[in-house]
């Protein structure tokens, strides 16, 4: 394969769709597989959509996913600038070249003229392509109007009745006719290019060899093909990725949960779990097909890079199964070493934690204690975002729970409960600390206490768990007690006596 250069070209809208991460990941993987470059270009030619801080979101999300560009406005590279608003002179030059060649023209329609055109088109209920009344205006005349200060745009001059055949590496052969395509704007009156001009010029000048983008760009293909032709440039390979669907049908919907990439991160999904899930939305491993490894679902980014090829993409629309993603995330959380699990959580708190008190509590508890707390949660949580709530009882005295609400406890008499608590406290006060006795010794001791008061062992454990943690669900009792330590446990049990 020739030198591979791919790009991700988001518009800085402040919102990076999770599907955009899939697109970026495919582009990244292809470049890495072939020792090429992955570049990031910011497509900010629509100034009406300018959003403060939007570029930061893009860079930060890509970084968190490990999809760091080799070239970009922030990473350098010799094919820049990599932000379209910094390339206006380039687009102007190429647009004017097209005008000189007769592939584009200066156009002067007023807002009223365009509105009238739209009105007629709608009244006729016909979908016909826009043909500008200025497309055949002699160039000399157009230039005179411009010199006189008339506002203008540059439009692409669509030839009549020309068939266009386009080979997409994923979607296959497509046919278009120029009769369906507008004399579209290439350069706007504010001097900014439209997407169509900018994307063609930039992909060429940045020597992009492969373009991954969404199927929503398919209708623009004829414009792009004609631009490449007019410039005499070779086209990159294109793969238009199918739309990701909601299980309920239609586009992935916000009503059912997160859609933006950083929302998923904020909800406590691990980047590597998300990437693995996204890989499989439209790709299957060739090894799986060759060796019948049909069950294989886990792929690290490295596995993926080693295998990824456009020919293994699937053109049917993948369904975004949120339960499956949650399952992946849980699997990934459980597979982390304890150290990495702690790291993942602390990174998450740094990035997305918004509870300042909780953050201070973590600092005050110190890394060792926090690590002990977290390790007990590793097999229990499905996302990192569930963790802060599960740790609350370590830091804040939990509310008391009514025994009538707990199955194992509601038939106990007050004397039985008090007996269990008193005997346990007596035992605790005989020990220097919780950890000076092994868990087995504690467990045996609680069983003996339970028997003494004619209570099932499970009920005695439950009564202690509730007093200490405020919940019938907690990590193993004695591990929790070791972290809470003697004084706190005593105070919490006292409240029930
Ligand atoms: N700026 C376009 C978008 O955000 C990029 C399309 C492309 O990749 O060519 O959808």
Automatic annotation (TrEMBL):
Residues in coiled coil: none
Q: Where is the Glutamyl/glutaminyl-tRNA synthetase class Ib catalytic domain?
A: 4-327
InterPro entries in the record: aa-tRNA-synth_I_cd-bd, aa-tRNA-synth_I_codon-bd_sub2, aa-tRNA-synth_I_CS, aa_tRNA-synth_I_cd-bd_sf, Glu-tRNA-ligase_bac/mito, Glu/Gln-tRNA-synth, Glu/Gln-tRNA-synth_Ib_cat-dom, GluQ/Sye
Motif 'HIGH' region in this chain: where?
10-20
Concerning SUPFAM superfamilies, the annotation shows:
An anticodon-binding domain of class I aminoacyl-tRNA synthetases, Nucleotidylyl transferase
Gene symbol?
A: gltX
GO annotation, biological process:
glutamyl-tRNA aminoacylation
Q: What is this protein called?
A: Glutamate--tRNA ligase
Q: What's this protein's function?
A: Catalyzes the attachment of glutamate to tRNA(Glu) in a two-step reaction: glutamate is first activated by ATP to form Glu-AMP and then transferred to the acceptor end of tRNA(Glu).
Subcellular localization: Cytoplasm
Please give one Gene Ontology molecular function term for this protein.
ATP binding
Major place of localization? cytoplasm
Q: Which PROSITE patterns does the record match to this protein?
A: AA_TRNA_LIGASE_I
Enzyme Commission (EC) number: 6.1.1.17
Cited Pfam families: Anticodon_2 (PF19269), tRNA-synt_1c (PF00749)
Q: Which reaction does it catalyse?
A: tRNA(Glu) + L-glutamate + ATP = L-glutamyl-tRNA(Glu) + AMP + diphosphate
* HAMAP family, per the entry: Glu_tRNA_synth_type1
Q: Can you state the subunit structure given in the record? A: Monomer.
Q: Which family does it belong to?
A: Belongs to the class-I aminoacyl-tRNA synthetase family. Glutamate--tRNA ligase type 1 subfamily.
Q: Where do the Aminoacyl-tRNA synthetase class I anticodon-binding domain residues begin and end?
A: 365-496
- Key words, A-Z: Aminoacyl-tRNA synthetase, ATP-binding, Cytoplasm, Ligase, Nucleotide-binding, Protein biosynthesis
Organism equals candidate division WS6 bacterium OLB20
* Binding site residues for ATP: 254
**Mind telling me which GO cellular component terms the entry cites?**
cytosol
Q: Where is this motif: 'KMSKS' region?
A: 251-255
């Amino acid at each position: 394969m020739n030198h591979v250069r791919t790009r991700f070209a988001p518009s800085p809208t402040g919102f990076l769709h999770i599907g955009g991460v899939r697109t970026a990941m495919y582009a990244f993987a292809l470049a890495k597989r072939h020792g090429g470059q992955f570049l990031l270009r910011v497509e900010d030619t629509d100034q009406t959509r300018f959003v403060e801080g939007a570029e930061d979101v893009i860079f930060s999300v890509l970084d968190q996913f490990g999809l760091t560009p080799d070239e970009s406005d922030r990473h350098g590279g010799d094919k820049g600038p990599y932000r379209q608003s910094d390339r206006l002179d380039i687009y102007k030059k190429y647009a004017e070249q097209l005008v000189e060649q007769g592939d584009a023209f200066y156009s002067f329609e007023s807002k009223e003229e365009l509105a009238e055109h739209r009105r007629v088109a709608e009244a006729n209920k016909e979908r016909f392509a826009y043909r500008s009344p200025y497309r055949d205006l002699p160039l000399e005349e157009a230039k005179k109007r411009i010199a006189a200060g008339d506002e203008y745009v540059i439009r692409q001059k669509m030839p009549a009745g020309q068939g266009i055949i386009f080979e997409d590496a994923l979607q296959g052969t497509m046919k278009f006719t120029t009769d369906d395509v507008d004399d579209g704007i290439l350069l706007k009156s504010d001097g900014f290019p439209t997407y169509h001009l900018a994307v063609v010029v930039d992909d060429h000048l940045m020597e992009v060899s492969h373009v991954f983008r969404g199927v929503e760009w398919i209708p623009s293909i004829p414009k792009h093909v004609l631009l490449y032709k007019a410039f005499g440039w070779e086209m990159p390979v294109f793969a238009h990725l199918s739309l990701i669907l909601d299980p309920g049908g239609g586009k992935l919907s916000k009503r059912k949960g997160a859609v933006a990439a950083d929302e998923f991160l904020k909800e406590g999904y691990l980047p590597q779990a998300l990437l693995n899930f996204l890989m499989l939305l439209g790709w299957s491993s060739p090894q799986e097909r060759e060796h019948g490894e049909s069950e294989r679902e886990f792929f690290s980014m490295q596995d993926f890079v080693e295998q990824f090829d456009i020919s293994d993409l699937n053109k049917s629309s993948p369904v975004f199964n949120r339960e499956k993603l949650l399952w992946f995330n849980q699997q990934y959380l459980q597979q982390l070493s304890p150290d990495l699990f702690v790291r993942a959580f602390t990174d998450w708190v740094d990035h997305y934690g918004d509870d300042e008190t909780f953050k201070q509590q973590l600092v005050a508890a110190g890394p060792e204690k926090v690590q002990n707390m977290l390790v007990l949660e590793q097999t229990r949580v499905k996302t990192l975002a569930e963790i802060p709530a599960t740790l609350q009882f370590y830091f804040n005295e939990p509310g008391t729970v009514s025994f009538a609400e707990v199955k194992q406890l509601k038939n106990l008499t007050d004397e039985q409960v008090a007996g269990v608590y008193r005997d346990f406290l007596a035992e605790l006060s005989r020990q220097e600390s919780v950890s000076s006795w092994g868990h087995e010794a504690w467990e045996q001791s609680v069983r003996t206490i339970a028997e003494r008061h004619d209570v099932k062992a499970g009920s005695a454990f439950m009564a202690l768990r509730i007093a200490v943690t405020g919940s019938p669900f907690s990590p193993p009792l004695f591990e929790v007690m070791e972290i809470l330590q003697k004084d706190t446990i005593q105070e919490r049990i006292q409240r029930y006596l």
